[in-house]
Amino acid sequence: MRTIIKHPAFEKGRQAVLRALDTQMRGQIIFVVGMSGVGKSEIRYDVMRSYAGSPSGWGTGKIPAIAVRAAPTSGSYFNSKEFTLRLYLALFEPDIGWVANRKEVQSADCTIERTDKILGTLQWLDVRSLRTEHYLRTHVERMIIARSVRAIFIDESASITYAVMHKNPVDHMVNLMCLAEETNASLVMFGVPRMASLWEGNAEIIRRSRFVFVDRYRYEKADDRADFERLAVTVARNYRFHRTGLVHSSLDMAYASSAGVFGELVAYYQRADDSRLMDGCHSIQRRHLEAAIASEFTLTTLHADARQYDALSSPASARSIERILAEASEGPP
Q1: Which residues contact 105 (CB under 8 A, 6 or more apart)?
Q2: What angle is formed at CA 22 by the lines to CA 16 and CA 25, rounded to 5 degrees?
Q3: pLDDT-based confidence at 1, cuts 50/70/90?
Q4: Are 40 and 188 in contact (CB under 8 A)?
Q5: CB atoms within 10 A of CB 17
Q6: CATH (one of 1.50.10.100, 1.10.60.10, 3.30.465.10, 3.40.50.300) for 8-213
Q7: What is the pLDDT of residue 75?
Q8: Would the pTM count as exceeding 0.90?
Q9: Rounded to an integer, what distance in angstroms lies between the CA atom of residue 135 and that of residue 140?
C-alpha cells in the first residue's frame, strides 16, 4: 500500500479545492490541474471524505458526492455515452467505499476501479447496448436531484479532449456545464494541463469556472527547494541508504528525475532501490541513484511538461498585459 505523505503542495491543493466547494455558487465547474503524479487522485479522495462528512448525516437514499472516470473508451477517443453510463451506474448503485480512512483501502481509485469491473458484466453490457444516451442522460439528471448530489468528481478529465474527428472537445464541456446547471451540482474536474483546451477560448465556460493548480516544487525558488528537500528525505525513509547525507548530496539528481513532482520522486527512489537489488547490495549507493536516472529523451519530455504546466498556472506578465491593452486600444483594422 502506498504511503500517503501530506506534503505542502498536497495540502495547498486540497485546501484550495475545499474552499472552492465551500460556496453558494451551485452548478459551478472546478478545474483541478496538475502534472501526472502530483497527487490529484489522493486529493480527490481526501476532499470527497471531508466534503461529504459521515454517511449517518446524509439521509436515506442520499449521497452528497460521486466519483467517475472520463477515460477514453471508444477507439482511444472520449465517448459521451460511455461517460453518461458511468454516471448512471455511480448513481444507480452508489459505491461509498471512499468514506473509509485512506489507510484502510488499497487505492484512492477503489470506487472508480470497481465501476470499471461492473461495466464489464453482462447486465451492464446489456444496459449499454439497449439504452440510448438520451435515456441515460435523462435518468442521470433525475437521480442527481433525487439523491441530493452536490458534487460530481471527474477523474482523468483531460481524456475529454480526445474527441473524434469533427467533434470539438468544448462541445462535451458545454454538455457537462448544462448538466451542472440543470442539477445544481458542482463538477470537480481533475486532469493534466492538456485539459486547458476544455475552457480556453470559451468565455461562457470560464465565467462559470474556478481553477485550482496543484503545484510542483520549483528548484529555483528557495522555499520550494527547501520543501522539496524535506519531501525527498521523507520519501527516502522508506529505503536503506548507504550513508547519512546521500539524499541531500544527490538532490540535484532527484530533482532532475522528478521535476519537483511527488509521484516522479517516489518512482525515482524506487528505481534506485531496484538497481540496488540487482546489484546485490545491502543499501542504496550513489551509483544506484545515477543508474535510476531516466533517459535524456524522458527527462526532456518531463521538464517540457513542467514548463507547460508553469505557463498555464502563471498569470499573464506585465509586458503581455501592456501588449493586449495596446492592441485593444487600436480598435479593428
Answers
A1: 97, 98
A2: 115
A3: very low
A4: no
A5: 27
A6: 3.40.50.300
A7: 64
A8: yes
A9: 9
